[in-house]
Fold this protein.
Amino acid sequence: MTYNSIIKNKSYQTKIPSGSHWSMVVRRGTALTIKDLEGAANVGMMFFNPTELNEKYNAPDTLKCQHTFKLTKGHCLYSDMGRIFCSITNDSFGWHETLCGNSHPSHIQKWGKRDYQTQQNAWMQNGFDSFLVELAKYDLYKQDMCANVNWFSEVRADEEGKLSLARQSQAGDSVTLRFEMDTLVVLHTCPHPLNMAEEYPSSLIELNLSIAPAMQEDDECLNHCDENRRGFENNALYHFGL
């Protein structure tokens, strides 16, 4: 998109192919919509406070305080300081997981060993290495990694507690995040670690950035549970005087 369109329309749009990575400091009051254009996408995403990079996304607290195993509309994503990075304001898929982590080089080997030197841009990347590439841009390294969300991937447990990838999104599915504080967003579009597809998954996603409507008192995320209200109070104190 051009400079004028970003300034005039206060929006930005880009498309990211599978096996890629992206990052940006998303400002408070911004809405980020992730759309699966072709179906069966997986978008791994980590969150950091860009001014205090040791404040990171906390998956256990996010699930525990909202009494949930999945993420969907009405849920908030917490930092390890009890603040809310973002809220899920719209979601057509209905189930996103934050337990299984990333694909690694060992996962990619089931689709055949490939590397950039021989396949160039067609090589099969994994989530772990993709995150490392983006993190290095902010002077962050392997030891700085935190839990990640896998958008558009539903996992289920069998009677023995074994997890499997139960469902992925259809073309056109989307999820919208409203950012409640400035957040460094780091993402990849590599396969889910439990993906058993015969071929390396290929799915194009679209990112849309826009100005989010102001939160109202009857907001679903604010009122989802008492803990969410406390999280928003922590954010208000964090931003006090700005």
Remarks:
- The first helix runs from residue 3 to 9.
